[in-house]
């Protein structure tokens, strides 16, 4: 079905004029729909290879956004701009299934705000930290047992490591020989992959409702006030660790190079941005984090970076089937930046820990 027709399956206002690819997410297929009198919508083709149960996925998103909407109203905010609004289909469903089985959803477009693929100002990064911290704080009393696990063991780094080893073993594309150095790097770190989950198992870290994909382009920054107004990409909101939300944001935002920079000499951890994010995140969490959680923040940054690197490398070995790629060796470049960042974090480890005190 043509994209314009898809948009018209939903309870939209005005006639659709154009539908164009939009954004730089790695997972879903995102389009901007322009309507006849200026209104806009986001149309998304849901990646059903990754999110296998669309009913459960959309139930999570409806539950989380309606909970947030009430919290935002209660505290005097504007729920139309501060959380995602799902537009239902004409027959009242949260998504539409096309004739090929493709699943589509529509969101209200958040006007006057934008996402960034790199930090352009310290203040914006600080604001994004406050907003992700606040997101977690707002969901502190959300009934976690009503959430479906949209991707099982999403940030179970030890499981990611086992999956990685399976990909090396299978070597379906015959690429393993080319990446011996990277494989060795992962193996050198295998002793650390279960540290945070072990702390969770021992009751040293609490399980919270977390976002789990806190990269900078999953937050909308207001064009006028430069405040981070809305956390988006809610597909992976699940019970998780605060250190992971903190860490994934550092992995992406406090790297001095892009996630897919081919020249790894440009990669390093900006301690300045790290410090800014610590401050903003703790402020946003509003004093909720325990002493152990604060101590675990540097480990969260390192593990999210290592885990993401392993995932990129496993995907490279499996033939680039998970993350969207737009050039040859794209996943390999991505994995190399992540490992260079882990190595730089190790050099700066003491300072990172001091900054979290
Ligand atoms: P993915 O899971 O593929 O990362 P996202 O949900 O993050 O998909 O969407 C991709 C991009 O589309 C975002 O980074 C953002 O720029 C844009 N976007 C998504 N939802 C909205 C929205 N409701 N309003 C405005 N822009 C949006
Ligand atoms: C994916 O959807 P997107 O592009 O925001 C991925 C994250 C990775 C990230 C790496 C559901 O995030 O886990 O950290 O790419 N999301 C999923 O850039 O796997
Ligand atoms: Mg995204």
Element layout with pairings:
Blueprint: H1 3-7, E1 16-21, E2 29-35, E3 40-45, H2 54-74, H3 79-82, E4 86-87, E5 96-97, E6 103-108, E7 113-114, H4 122-138, H5 157-170, H6 180-188, H7 195-201, E8 208-210, E9 219-222, E10 228-231, E11 238-240, H8 242-253, H9 271-285, H10 291-295, H11 297-317, H12 330-347, H13 349-355
Antiparallel strand pairs: 1-2, 2-3, 3-6, 4-6, 5-6, 7-9, 8-11, 9-10
Magnesium ion is lined by residues 25, 217-218, 233.
Descriptive account of the structure:
With 357 residues, the protein is α+β, with helices and mostly antiparallel strands. 43% of the residues lie in helices and 13% in strands. The chain contains 13 helices and eleven strands. Strand 5 and strand 6 form a beta hairpin. Helix 4 packs parallel to helix 9. The longest helix has 21 residues. The protein binds adenosine-5'-diphosphate (ADP), 2-acetamido-2-deoxy-1-O-phosphono-alpha-D-glucopyranose (GN1) and magnesium ion (MG). The site of magnesium ion (MG) has 4 residues, from loops.
